[in-house]
Structure formats: structure tokens, C-alpha cells
Design a protein that fits this description.
Layout lengths: L13 H8 L4 E5 L5 E2 L15 E5 L3 E10 L5 H4 L4 E8 L6 E4 L14 E8 L5 E7 L2
Antiparallel strand pairs: 1-2, 1-3, 4-5, 4-7, 5-6, 7-8
């Protein structure tokens, strides 16, 4: 959707954003301690390894862990769609990984906590795709 702000990939996050553009959900994994982490970081948050981080594909399935409704965003692009949901999604592949989503298709403040969701990739104003989550019917 055109109203969404676009992320600015850096050296560490670029593989994540490139995968989004390809319609794939990936997260970082440390090959030393086997810990997954998101958002991407320069070092493993568990063991501190720098050279042993890789990106692995996830299933794209999750559960709504919680949410809030934004009525007064400071981001000008998002002010056009207020109020809007901001849900916390827990990945089925790794419950320690939490992602945020606007939950396209879910009316404001009607978020079914505990519901199953599936990832979709929506285009931002400059063409970069972002991972969003939609409630599974």
C-alpha cells in the first residue's frame, strides 16, 4: 500500500529486505549456537558471533500475540489511515521471534488475539516490499 513508510536497508538487514522483495520470509540464524534472531543484527545476541550468521527461510505462519491501536501516529504517512492496528506476531517456527504488522484486512480494534496469521508482502511507496500478516480465515 502506498501509505506505508519504506525501510532503508543497511548492510546487515539487506538480505532480509531482498527476501521480502522475492516474497520470502527469512530470519537470521547463528550457526554456532543455533539461535534465530529478528530484527537482523551484526552479531548473535546470544553468543556474540559475527562471522557465523546466515539467513534461513521461515514458513510464514504465526499467531497474534497481542496488539495496540494507534490513534495518534507521529509518522505523517500513517496519519492518513488512523486509527490502525499494530499487532505482535509470534512465529510458529520459533516462538521467540516476534514481528510487527498492521494486519491488513482486520478492522481497527477487532484483532483476534491468538488467531493464526500468514505472511504477505506489501509494497511501500518506493517499491520495497515489507512483511505484513493477515488473519487466516
Amino acid at each position: 500500500m502506498a501509505y506505508k513508510p519504506s525501510p532503508v536497508p543497511n548492510e546487515v538487514s539487506k538480505p532480509f529486505w531482498d527476501a521480502c522483495n522475492e516474497g520470502r520470509l527469512v530470519v537470521q540464524r547463528c550457526t554456532v549456537c543455533d539461535r534465530r534472531q529478528h530484527p537482523p543484527q551484526a552479531t548473535c545476541a546470544d553468543c556474540g558471533s559475527k562471522e557465523n550468521l546466515e539467513f534461513g527461510e521461515m514458513s510464514g505462519h504465526g499467531t497474534i500475540h497481542g496488539y495496540l491501536v494507534s490513534h495518534d501516529s507521529r509518522v505523517m504517512m500513517l496519519q492518513k489511515i488512523q486509527p490502525f492496528n499494530l499487532a505482535v506476531v509470534q512465529l510458529d517456527d520459533d516462538p521467540e521471534i516476534l514481528m510487527l504488522s498492521h494486519l491488513p484486512g482486520t478492522p481497527s480494534d477487532e484483532v483476534p488475539v491468538g488467531a493464526a496469521v500468514h505472511v504477505e508482502f506489501e509494497e511501500t511507496f518506493n517499491g520495497q516490499k515489507v512483511a505484513e500478516w493477515r488473519v487466516v480465515s
